[in-house]
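Hi support team,

I'm opening this ticket because the web form for multi-chain structure prediction keeps timing out on my end. I have pasted the exact lines I submitted so you can reproduce it. The total is 759 residues across two entries, so I didn't expect it to be a heavy job. Is there a limit I'm missing, or should I split the entries? Thanks in advance, R.K.
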Amino acid sequence: MSTGPHDPPRPGLPSGPRRRGVIAALLSALLVGLLVSLASPAQASDTPDGNVVRGVLQNTADNNAPVEGVTITVTSQDGQEYADTSDAAGEFLIEVPGEGGPVTIELDMDTLPEGVTLREEGQNVRKVVLLPNQEMPVLFAMGPDTRDVETKWDRLPGLVYSGLLFGLVLSLAALGLSMIFGTTGLTNFAHGELVGLGALLAYFLSVPMGIPFLLAVPLVVVIAMALGWAQDRGLWRPLRRRGTSLIAMMIITIGMQLALRYLYQFLTDGQRLNYQDYLTPPPHDFFGLFTYTSRDIAIIVVSVLVVVGVILALSFTRLGRATRAVSDNPALAASTGINVDRVISVVWIIGAGLAALSGVFLGFVQGVTYDIGQLVLLLLFAAVVAGGLGSVWGALIGSLLIGVLLDVSTLFVDAEVKNAGALLLLVLILLIRPQGLLGRKERIG
Amino acid sequence: MDLLTTPLHDMFGPVTLSYVFLAMGLNIHYGYTGLLNFGQAAFAAVGAYTLAVSVASFDIPFVLAILLGVLAAVLLGLLMGIPTLRLRADYLAIVTIAVAESCRLIFSTQWKSHFHARDGVRGFVGGFRDLNPLPDYEGRVLSYNRNDLWVMIVGWALVALVCLLVWLLMRSPWGRVLKGIREDENAVRSLGKNVYSYKMQALVFGGVIGAFGGFIGALGNASVVPDDYNTDVTFVALTMLILGGAARVMSPVVGAMLFWGLFSFMGVLLDDVMSSNQITMIRWILVGVALMLLMIFRPQGIFGDKKELALDAR
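Hello R.K., no limit was hit. The queue was backed up. Here is the completed structure from your submission:
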């Protein structure tokens, strides 16, 4: 942090009319800590030697009302005492001259107003070590702990909503993965890198190149589609012609995944990037159950339109029927006059476009990182296998299932390991119903 | 001069050695049985963590801890194999890569009092180092400290043993069944062999060899850190195997040494031009490209037989 004209102002402790609610109290407590820690180096130049012990007394039993007239005493190492009494806003501030060192901070229990109690017995005395010129925030909690007033089940609707949203975005990529598998038999371990491509392209087009985000998104999809076509044409088609085995092709996708991921890392310098537009849209409340944003709505509408469009096209257009025929049996499809190579080309084009679109949306939630593809690959596999490899409806349902399962599982396990839940589901599904929910049995053996 | 001595130094060092074991394990899976295991890192991780935590947290004697590590690798093999080995090859690939990532996730976030999150586990090598009779080695060209040297002597001796074992096994009827499964599963099944059981044995056997890679790596580093077992580790071992040529007893050894020599050579070569971070990324990009090119143009690697490896998953 620099000292200069842009120094943060001396923190104004929260005052004025108290906002109601637990969150407000929590936020302000956080804010105080943050501001205090931000301001401390600047503070250092004002008071060249000496420490400051400060804090705000609030009573959660009385709607976070400030507690006035409580005496706090700081006893330094050499027995000197410094004291202050909380004012009408509940604030106290004690200056302790010297180079810091171990001190005892004591709240005088006798000065507590009638009916106000500390949350825990014996919490009125603290022993801390002050660093030179440190400003030390001290919290004396009063009244019952209201922070956990929100129960697990209150969070459920919000988690289901965020899970569905994530699953929907995931399903875009899963659809492509499943279609490519269906028509070529190839499990594409580099599919996540197509997702990463979408996020990175959206960032580079919109932020450094300044193309408006809404224009950049279709551009990203078109570029990705072109690259999908090129990938099939330049790599996979020649390999298919040569009769390269699927296992060899899978290892090639692994090599591609490795090369692309580190290429992305090279290009982004390993930084986590963020889009500039639509990054923090205002939240709206949905009947008190969860909050949504206009960005969510846009993502949902676009995703649903695209997913339904692809599924309908597969069912009702000529090319869609041809695609399903190739999935069923490429040799038979070819013998009925279907141009198998052309169908596979189209599947690669659409699959790459879908994956990139999914990446653009994921970039909002996860940030644009080089390893976004590696992060989603596991989830994509879990989704596609759960739904049934090669089935498009399965890919959609599997993705939604995985999305909801992951987010809801955070009620019971650490958010850090929630992805392991997807694996558990993957293994369970393979044990119980290896073809997945909607897959066909003859595909798996 | 560093340009040659550093790679030469690294080619025999503990890191290469641990990769030799990983690649030898993959050779059983992919080379001989045709199983696509993308989670070899998990076997190394589970072996290394079991060894480290047993000694560091529970004061279990070193040899017993190694045995526990082997047991853990066997259990992991069963966990990966039971749901997938009856299915087509890609299911095993998907599940193994997922299990490997989950293992890393669990080691880096759970039971922090034993696994110590990203700091990793330390303080477990004493029992191994106490057995070390060697002094530091200062040669004219290469120098190793006595700890590395001890790991290397034990490790390379084990490599020789495993090579001999693999050579004998693959000449045995058991090995011929594995190769038969690789070539045509249904033909083997029609001869009355229990393909599922043989595949499971191969998966567990190769996994245990991989766990020894974990032991050697842990003893060489004197620490076990979750990020040392990410999926890239598996892919490097796979690249080494394919570089050497799958389904040959010595090829993982030669592949790993050659790979690590080249990897190290590039690092020294680029040292003046770029930051170490950039070198790392460039080298990894090249590893990926090399793996692709090898698979496209020379899937049999240096020593392999192209006809022997006409595998197909479908």
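A quick check on our side: Residues 1-48 of chain A have pLDDT under 50 and may be disordered. Let us know if the file doesn't open in your viewer.
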